[in-house]
Design brief:
Length: 638
């Protein structure tokens, strides 16, 4: 199963039992680096959240020559201001970031990309520029337009046929391309022109017509082979850009936020489970990381009209149909801007992590860099999101309770089996378990065992008294809430900091862990031993920032990394040797990149992604937060 030129994605070929280790994916030791580095805060261009719709795939092109002469204008995608949706249905999104290259060249960086392939067309662009720079009165080099020549003089040869002026009116040339079953009903007729008409031809029209007759076959033959783009392996230089390919996604939207967000959570709703009909509606909560503590906020968002974007790059046939009023018979294909409604609450300090209680989504806990965990009841603000018309003014809002730690932290998780039970962990290696008591949360002494900062916590999906933790000491531990001074199980999971873990809700004996060296591993709790994972992958080039099992597919896992990638893995896949032979014959190369067969999809174009989550109710819809905003996408090959 190889990567295709249209998307860095592989067909799903189910084979042997899940969790097969990829060959050659060995662990590589790397010095531990300081993770949890917050984004370099920077005010956004606008304080109003907006959407940039549709980006996917990546095609690398060299445009240096043309851009030095005339930089390409920057365009923006569709926008969705608060509760507004009035733009036409067909949109053509473009670049979200504009960077300046060498000598004034403009480099467009398109947001989310799924590596489609790289094309270096520098030589072709150079030749095209020479044609464009030709004087207006001089026709550019290229295929000559064939015009019938009628001679009215006497020829030198006796066999030469002389055409009389009386026959000119009847002289016409039929289109040689006719249907096999009969004559072409739309046969073109070319009538001979007098020399007097040729002299009146506009030089600009002649130049334009000559440009349209450029032989595209010759242009294609000049292009090099396609290459798969991979961050960390290929570097974009001035004049090169990643181009989106929406065919790699069913749904793809991007939203800019006033400030970067380190963490978010998807709120469970009552709109139905396993829903697939478009457009989608998403509820979520997130928190900002502003340059000053008093500027930070909790953001409660309702995002609607998330339509399909897969056909946004289709040819003009769709546009012609729209202009003629034909439209589309499929409601899922209707293109509209997403609509955003939001509520804001002031928050003390940056939000390191935020989680919603599964049983009561309006109850939210947030970890602050001020060293405390705040518990919020967001029912009034959630209810206001459903109001029709203008947003009414809401009270300032305050947490219903604060849980104090001696230092800040990131680890936090609500129990899926016991409503109101909350785990928190801080950078002083302490873990606390909070449980409801008289309408508030109460906790006792810390759980002791880790030798360094606690980075992530996960409750067991079936055992109400069991949870797992990971730490920068390189270990993953399993605890019983009834024993505080020692863990039940402990393994040396990685040779560096362990940043994140995820406990599968569908296969309850599997835990996945992600580390600072860019590797992630899958563990079987039935054979939990040091350095003995059942799967180990080293695809990413930088630290793993988030990892999560799919709530709908037991063999699928999503991973985000600081190398600006979100990868999706399916452990039920194995290499298809017949497909591999077929891929080797195509016009693209993987160079020296070893692609594991379990790698199903790559989402790129993010800047410093921090978290990725599957939607609990919409199959295969993912959301990811990054420095450059929020990405909402649904791969087409899943």
């Amino acid at each position: 199963v190889g990567l295709t030129s249209s998307a860095v994605a592989q067909p799903r070929t189910h084979a042997h039992p899940p969790l097969q280790s990829a060959p050659g994916m060995q662990s590589r030791k790397k010095a531990s680096s300081k993770k949890k580095t917050r984004h370099a805060v920077k005010p956004a261009a606008t304080a109003t959240p907006r959407f940039l719709t549709g980006t996917a795939g990546a095609r690398k092109q060299v445009r240096a020559a043309a851009q030095k002469r005339s930089p390409a204008p920057e365009t923006t995608g569709t926008q969705a201001h608060l509760a507004t949706s009035s733009r036409p249905r067909k949109t053509r999104p473009a670049a979200a970031v504009k960077l300046e290259g060498e000598e004034g060249a403009t480099l467009k960086q398109f947001p989310p990309t799924c590596g489609k392939g790289l094309e270096d067309v520098g030589d072709v662009e150079d030749s095209e520029e020479e044609v464009q720079d030709a004087p207006a009165d001089q026709a550019p080099a290229g295929p000559e337009e064939v015009t019938p020549v009628i001679e009215d003089g006497e020829g030198d040869s006796e066999d030469e046929e002389v055409v009389n002026e009386e026959d000119l009116a009847d002289l016409e040339f039929e289109d040689p391309f006719v249907d096999e079953e009969g004559e072409d009903s739309d046969t073109e007729v070319v009538v001979a022109k007098d020399d007097e008409d040729d002299e009146n031809v506009d030089p600009e029209e002649a130049n334009k017509k000559a440009m349209e007759t450029i032989n595209m076959d010759s242009l294609a033959s000049a292009l090099p082979k396609l290459q798969v783009y991979r961050p960390g392996v290929h570097e974009l230089v001035a004049g090169e850009a990643l181009e989106p390919d929406n065919s790699a996604y069913e749904v793809l939207h991007r939203m800019n936020l006033p400030w970067p967000c380190l963490s978010f959570d998807i709120l469970r709703d009552n709109l139905g489970d396993n829903r697939t009909k478009l457009p989608h509606t998403v509820y979520m909560v997130t928190g900002t990381q502003a340059d000053k503590a008093q500027k930070n906020k909790l953001l409660l968002l309702k995002i609607t009209h998330l339509h399909k974007t897969k056909h946004d790059d289709d040819d003009s046939e769709t546009e012609v149909a729209d202009e003629e009023g034909k439209g589309s018979d499929n409601e899922d294909d209707i293109q509209q801007d997403p609509v955003l409604r939001q509520r804001e609450l002031k928050h003390d300090g940056c939000v390191n992590r935020i989680r919603s209680m599964p049983q009561q989504p309006h109850v939210v806990a947030s970890w602050s860099d001020a060293g405390k965990v705040s518990v919020w009841d967001l029912r009034p603000w959630l209810a206001s999101l459903e109001d029709e018309g203008p947003m009414r003014k809401m009270p300032a809002g305050a947490p219903i309770q604060s849980l104090n730690h001696k230092a800040e932290g990131y680890a936090m998780d609500w129990s899926p089996t016991q409503p109101g039970w909350l785990l928190t962990g801080d950078s002083l290696k302490n873990i606390y378990c909070w449980h409801p008591e008289n309408s508030l949360l109460s906790g006792e002494g810390p759980y002791v065992g880790h030798q360094s900062s606690v980075e992530d916590l996960q409750w067991s999906p079936v055992e109400s008294s069991v949870f797992a933790s990971c730490s920068s000491d390189g270990t993953v531990r399993v605890w019983d809430t009834r024993t505080r001074n020692a863990s039940m199980l402990s393994v040396r999971a990685h040779d560096c900091d362990v940043n994140v873990i995820s406990w599968s809700r569908l296969v309850t004996y599997l835990i996945a862990s992600g580390a600072d060296d860019g590797s992630f591993r899958v563990w079987d709790l039935r054979a939990f031993k040091d350095n003995a994972p059942i799967s180990h992958f080293k695809w990413h080039k930088d630290q793993i920032t988030s990892i999560e099992w799919s709530p709908k597919e037991q063999s699928m896992l999503a991973v985000s990394s600081a190398d600006n990638q979100v990868s999706i893995w399916d452990f039920s896949l194995e290499e298809d040797h017949e497909q591999k032979v077929e891929d080797d014959e195509k016009e693209y190369e993987l160079e020296e990149v070893a692609v594991p067969p379990q790698l199903l999809f790559l989402h790129m174009g993010l800047k410093e992604p921090k978290e990725v989550h599957w939607h609990p109710h919409i199959p295969n819809l993912l959301l990811a937060t990054a420095y450059d905003g929020l990405h909402i996408f649904q791969p087409a090959n899943i």
